[in-house]
Amino acid sequence: MGLNAELLQSSLAVVAEREPQITRRFYEHLFARYPQVRPLFSKNASHLQQQMLQEAIVAVVEHVEDAAWLDTNLRAMGRKHVDYGVTEEMYDWVGECLLVTLAELAEEAWTPEVAAAWTEAYGAIRGLMLAGAAN
Ligand code: HEM
């Protein structure tokens, strides 16, 4: 992917240290800004869902230099998200809320370089998940 693995990993470490429950804040932003997605989340208790999302983000960042892993896993995840009722525009909403959350928690560690690295990484994740969704 040509992403800046070091910047992504170090900034995620800062955020995780300050707020172990990154995704709790993420869902607060998501449901406040886009309440229409709330009904999609019902299968799992929300704490389980939060843990899975957090683990997924950590796994992606750990494998950011492993194109084969990303390709296989993100396409499969994109495919599953079709069944959850996730549409293409929702990826923009989720990307916005993820970056807002990371920026808020990273505080001074959220430099323009870190912001650019996350914008690029999310764009790549979105692209692979949507490619999987199209199959
Ligand atoms: C970076 C992109 C994303 C990641 C890493 C991610 C990660 C995950 C993971 C790990 C799960 C658990 C089940 C599974 O493995 O399929 C899941 C489920 C789910 N995701 Fe995502 N997701 C992403 C994008 C989105 C977007 C854009 C939406 C749109 C609102 C969304 C909505 C959902 C829903 C509705 C479920 C099922 C929840 C339930 O069963 O209650 N996700 N996601």
Protein architecture, described:
The protein is mainly alpha-helical and 135 residues long. It has one domain: Globins (Globin-like, Orthogonal Bundle), CATH 1.10.490. The chain has 6 helices and no strands. The chain has helices at residues 5-18, 22-33, 46-62, 67-83, 88-106, 112-133. It is globular, with a radius of gyration of 14 Å. The chain starts with a helix and ends with a helix. The model has no long low-confidence stretch (mean pLDDT 91). Protoporphyrin IX containing FE binds at residues 37, 40-44, 49, 52-53, 56-57, 77, 80-81, 84, 86, 90-91, 94, 125.
From N to C, what is the helix and strand string?
HHHHHH
Radius of gyration: 14 Å
Give the beta-strand count. 0
What is the name of the CATH topology? Answer: Globin-like
Number of domains: 1
Counting helices, strands and paired strands, the structural category is mainly alpha
Helix content: over 70%
Low-confidence stretches: none
- Roughly what is the average pLDDT, rounded to an integer? 91
Q: What global shape is seen? A: globular
- CATH C-level category: Mainly Alpha
User: What percent strand?
Assistant: under 5%
Termini Cα gap:
21 Å
Question: Helix count?
Answer: 6
**Ligands (ions, cofactors included):** protoporphyrin IX containing FE
> What kind of sheet is the major sheet?
none
CATH superfamily: Globins
**CATH architect. name:** Orthogonal Bundle
